[in-house]
Structures are given as structure tokens and as C-alpha cells.
Amino acid sequence: MALSKKPVTGMKDILPAEMQVRDYVIGLIQETYKSFGFSHIETPCMENISNLSSKQGGENEKLIFKVLKRGEKLHIPEAQTEADVVDCGMRYDLTVPLSRYYSNNSAQLPAPFKALQMGNVWRADRPQRGRFRQFMQCDIDILGDASCLAEIELMSATTTLLGKLGFSGFKVCFNDRRVLKAMAAYSGFAEKDYDQVFIILDKMDKIGMEGVAAELSENGFAGDAVETYMGLFAELEQAPDSLAYLEKKLDGVVAGGVIAGMRTIIGSVRATASCEFSLVFDPTLVRGMSYYTGSIFEIKMEELGGSVAGGGRYDEMIGKFTGMDTPACGFSIGFERIITILMEKGFQVPQSGARKAYLIEKGMPAETMVKVLAEAKKEREAGIQVLVSNMNKNKKFQKEQLQKEGYGEFREFYKDFQ
Amino acid sequence: MALSKKPVTGMKDILPAEMQVRDYVIGLIQETYKSFGFSHIETPCMENISNLSSKQGGENEKLIFKVLKRGEKLHIPEAQTEADVVDCGMRYDLTVPLSRYYSNNSAQLPAPFKALQMGNVWRADRPQRGRFRQFMQCDIDILGDASCLAEIELMSATTTLLGKLGFSGFKVCFNDRRVLKAMAAYSGFAEKDYDQVFIILDKMDKIGMEGVAAELSENGFAGDAVETYMGLFAELEQAPDSLAYLEKKLDGVVAGGVIAGMRTIIGSVRATASCEFSLVFDPTLVRGMSYYTGSIFEIKMEELGGSVAGGGRYDEMIGKFTGMDTPACGFSIGFERIITILMEKGFQVPQSGARKAYLIEKGMPAETMVKVLAEAKKEREAGIQVLVSNMNKNKKFQKEQLQKEGYGEFREFYKDFQ
User: Which residue range or ranges hold the Aminoacyl-transfer RNA synthetases class-II family profile domain (chains A, B) (predicted)?
Assistant: First the structure.
């Protein structure tokens, strides 16, 4: 069979110029998150298929790249379903693997545990421009802390990082699943319908208040409930202090302390902000993943028309592995989106030192070449990046190419070099 | 189905202590190889199955983790063989993907191209202590340079790196497939038998000269050939200058310039060494991969009883993709082995700054917590790693745990903090 030059459909080769930006951003992520006390960890890229298909991953579970059983365990001619031939799969996020990791290793980890993960995930999405089937995710999570200090640290760390990357004026939207549910309960929706209601609510920024009201009615929800629900959102828009309004309105419906906690989180993150951004309570923020149990948040950037980071509290997932609930809260930045924005902006990685290219005449005697190499050694030890290369026939073109790679200085060495 | 806490068989979770060492080594690899002008690149972790099964990968092709086709392309009940249900697989090395990458992108890359790759590879090996089914490889390759400058730069860069990691006294063994073949030809072995002869020769350090001679005879090779062959090795051991001996002996059998090139490589690398090691011509060095076409090399460390790095020239692989031969030479370090040695040695990562842990009394009012967080912000901006955590009931145990994580200083904040 002929060999194919192209990468696997939907995946991409990364060229040196992009790789420089990625390495720079990865370095900044490590430095920033470590300064907040997060520990870098890693899990394997594959997980047992039962863990990936445990309904924790929502829609992503439909997109798993599955791995074939091997050796004696594989019987293809008799196989009827995927389950007969598959034993593991590629991870589609870093949250399910982290929960398994914590269950497996918690005895050796501090409590609470602050984890930083950077790694590839795989999703067999329909290939489209700018979206790939292998992409990097970058998550921070705090496990074992039920207090709102977890949310504050996650938001402070993430906004600090975005600031260091040169972004400002972005918007951190904040909500709580318990408030979402209380607003639905107050309006008279049945608990079994919440998910459907929230899917429609999630369209607010596209179809507006009237659109949401219309779609709720079309889906057969009672007029009373829809009216009360939309009334809440309308009044929230007018309220001078929307959290105070809800605290009063939902008294007895939402658990005590939930709204006070939100106020603490918003106040603390604002007061210690290290770059310019807005942090707002957004009662229409839903976040797709069904595993969220408390606060949910998302960072939006105008220049992108989309989200560059998202996260929330998922206090019940680790219990699925251990049988014992562990509070957990995480924030994931859209690494690939950030790289795309930086590349489009023409972002230049700050150079840490000079770059020189040595061009050597072909056929140079070995004794002379040693002298050139000794020179290169000396300069490299002094922190200079030195490329040693044979001189091409078209020296001018060679230099132009090397200039594109950032080589600003050239030295030419001929056979008579002393 | 119950969720499993363990990672996939043969793969491992990486704890924070090991991850610190890995991150440190990765940083040093990048810094060192970049100073030699290598550009960091990345390919997807999956490749089309036809590329992985092209006989370039030798024995590793038997160990591929294969990925199931998805959606409409998959028909399990009718499938008879793996080929019916599989379209790609996990890479088992970084060399086949690099060749594909170069074929796909060479128009956008400088010539020659010096590539640095660090990434996971997967092999469904029989699980055993210290060997994993997912592991990191770290390769440097020079593409488009047929001269021995490529070998010199690869060896200098790799030995410089090992020196920076604190290793010394290691042994770089060096040979050339063309010398290996010429010695076999000179002895009268048929070309079709070379691979079998080399597999037996490869056992020299385990079974010795007599063992090799006996096994060659047992395998039915002519007594004359075996005798001549073993005679060459015996005389090489005695020769004061083994390359000069071979140059004379193999005159007309080995291509002109091959041995002179080896002498240049050995001389140049020795003369510009940046740490203490020995570099020797080893006529028994074989290296398993059939794709090697010229020089081959391997670094051995006494304290390991094994190889920590290996590589060679593979001038014909890229032509399999492009139809046009491109000279290529690479060196791969055994990243996981190096990490294992460092961990066993109790290697401590040099700390770049102080680490402080702030412990906060539970129930602290929001206004007070903001003051503590502002304090943390100030210290973080000054380059200190600050962990902010709620105070646990058992404060003494909490501090002991944090000390293990490298936190040397503690600050306690109570509700009355001003």
C-alpha cells in the first residue's frame, strides 16, 4: 500500500513557528499556575472504555476514538458489537481521568490537592476549519476543598494567566447550578424537565428573551411557568443588585449560603484582580456538562465571539469511582483557541538570546572543522543558539531561509579557517 | 459497569514528585537542543495504519495499538480481519511520523532541517517491571544533510545534554552498517543472510566470541565464512588502530570514504566534548532497526547495564513517502530510563524560588479573606510560590504533608487578621 504524506484526517502537524508559540504559552502556564501552588500531574492518554462510557462525559462519549483489543482477547469474525472488540479508548477530556487518578492515588497526595494538567485529548468530531480531532487541553482543579476559596483561586489563577498572555477586557461569567435549578423550581417547572429547560435557556444570547419564551411554549411547558420564569430574568436585568434580588426572591428555594458564597467569590476575585476584566453574575449561563453540581463559569472574549475558558464544581464525580464524595472544582482554558488568536495576531515569542548560523564550506578538512565546532561550543556555552550547517550552493537563499527561522547573524567558514 | 480506579494495563499515573523531575529534564532537553539549532515540532499521536505497517518499524509493528473505524465506515458483524475494522493506530516511535511530516511539510522547512521531538509512543509489549505501554521518547534528527556533520552535531548535542544532567563516564559506541556489511561480505556470507548473521553477532557481549562462532555454525553457515569472520574480530581486538586495520583489510569491499568519515566523526566529537565520556568504534554494534543505512550509535551507562540512547542514519526512509531519497540521521535518548535513574538517585530539582503556604482559619469573613489574598498576590508577583489553603483540623499533619511538597514556610491567618 502506498504511504500517505498527510496526517490522519482531522489532525495536524505542528510547524516550528507555531511550536515556538505553544512552548512559550506552556511555559507561562506552568510558571503562573505553579505560583498558585498547583502541582503538575499526568495520566495516560488511554482509559478503560468502561470509565469513558460512564455517562460522565455527556455528548463527548459519542466521539470516542476506541482502541482494539489485542492478541488472544480479540476475535473479530465472531464479534457483533464494538464492546466485543474494544477494551479502552482515547480520553476525550482531562476531568474523567483526573477523577480516576485522584481515586487511585489520593493516599499519596496532599489534601486539598491542586492539580495542573496539560495534555492532548481526542474527539472524533466532524472535521471543520479550526477544530481538530486531537487537541491540547489545559486544566486546573482543586480536589478536597468544599469552600469557595477553590473557586476564588481557580478564577484568580486563570485571569492572571490571561493577563500575562497580553489579554485584557475579557468577561468572566459566573453562575451556580443550584441557582439555575432554584429559578426553575420557583417558576414551577418539574425537576425532570430542568435539563430541557436549561438547553433552551442556553440560547438566550442567540435568540433573546422572546425567543426563549417562544421555544419553551412550543415545547409544551405550561404558560404560567414560562411567564414566571421570564419575569425573573426581566426583573434581574433591572435589579440594581441581582444577587440581592435573587436572595430575597428565592428565599427557601435555594439552599442557604449559596448566594452569599457567590458574593464572596465575585468580591474576592474582583478585589485581587491582576489585570483588567469584568466578572459578572450571569443567570443565563448553563454550561453543558451534566456533572456540574455548584458554581459554573466561563470566560468570553469579544475578539473571538466565543469562550476561551470554562469550568465549575463537580462534587459528585469522584464518588463514582471511590464511593465517597469528594468536593472538586476545575477550570479549563481553551489552549488551542488561545494559540490560534496569538498566531493570528502575529505574536512574537520574546527571544531569550542571540541566534547565529555558522556556514561551513563543503570539503573542509577534519582538523579545520574541529576548530569551527570548538568555536560553536564556546558560543553555545555562553547562551547563544548556534546552528552549524554546510554552506549550500545558493548561499543567499540559504541565509534568507535562516533569517525566517530567527537567525540574525551569520559566520562563514572556509577551508583556510585558522 | 463499575468504574475502575487503575490506569489501563501497562500504563501509569505520574505523581507530582516524578512530574517535577520530568518537567526539569524536559526543560533542559529543550534548552540544550535549541542551543544546537534544533527546532521543536510535533506530529499527531495517531498515524494512518498503512504508514505504521509499512515494514519500517520492524518488530514494533506487531505491538501497535490499533484504533477502531468510526461511524458508517464500521461494520463489525461482517468483519473478518483487523483491516476491516481499523483505519489508524498509535505511533510506536517518532521516526516514521517524522518521515511523513518531512514529506508533507518540507517546502516550509529549512534545508537541512534539524528537528526536536518529545512525545509519547505506545507499544503493546508484555507488561513488565519498569517498562510501560505508553512512554515518552525524545528524538533529534537532521534531515537533508548527507555529510558527517550531521552525526557530529547529533552526538555532541546528546553528550552535552547527558553532561548537563550530571552523567559522565558513559560510553558512546559507534559503527556503520556499511562496515558491518563489508565485514560479512569479506568473510563470504551471502547478502540474503546478513540480517541473520547480525542478529547472532549482536549477542557478542552476552555470549562472547566463541558463543557467536558456535551459533553461526549451528545455523548452518559455512565453516570458512565463520572462521574468516571471527578472525576479523579477533584481529580488530588486537589492532592498535582498528579503523586503519579495516581500511586496509576491506579496501575495495567497503565504499571509499566510509571509514575516513567515521574517523572524522570520532575525532571531532572527542575534540569538542563538553563532559567526560568515551567514544569508541565498536564493530559488534548492530542496532535492530532494518532502516539504518550508514552510521549507527548507542550510549551505554555502566550503572544501568543498558543503553540510554541510540540512533543512526536512515537515508532511505523518507524516499518511501516522497519517492525521492533524503539523507536523514537521528539520535533518540531513553527518556524514561533517564527519569528512572534520576528518581532512584533521589535527584532533587533545583528550586527556582521560595514556597510558602498560607493557612486560613475556617469561617473567615469575606473582607478579611480579601486581605489575605491580596498578600498572596503581592508575594506571587515577587516570584514566590504561594499555596492558599483552608486550615485543617489537624494543622500539624497538614504542615508535615505540605513540607513533603516543598513548602518551607508557613503563615497562619485567623479571623482577626488586619
Answer: 1-350
| Residue B272: closest CA among A100, A156, A375, A186 | A375
Binding positions of A are 93-95, 123, 137, 141, 287, 291-292
Amino acid found at A19: M
CB-CB: which of B85, B114, B357 is closest to A76?
B85
pLDDT tens string A40-58: 999 999 999 999 987 777 7
Residue B304 has pLDDT above 80, yes or no: no
Q: Residue B327: what pLDDT? A: 96
User: Sheet of B86-90: strands edge to edge?
Assistant: A46-48, A86-90, A66-68, B66-68, B86-90, B46-48
A109 near B CB under 8 A: yes
Estimate the crossing angle of helix B242-249 against helix B177-187, to 10 degrees: 50
List, in order of start, the domains of chain B with CATH numbers.
11-146+315-349 (3.30.930.10), 165-291 (3.30.930.10), 355-413 (no CATH)
**What are the residue ranges of helices labelled H in A219-330?**
223-238, 242-249, 258-271, 317-322
Q: What is the pLDDT of residue B289?
A: 73
Name the residue among B147, B369, B381 with its Cβ closest to that of A390. Answer: B147
Task: Quote the CA–CA distance of B371 and A272 in Å, as a whole number.
Answer: 9
Average pLDDT over residues A361-366: 90
In this predicted structure, the answer to whether residue A1 has a pLDDT above a threshold of 50 is: no
Return the residue of B nearest to A270 by Cα. Answer: B370
pLDDT in tens, B329-357: 999 999 999 999 999 989 989 877 789 99
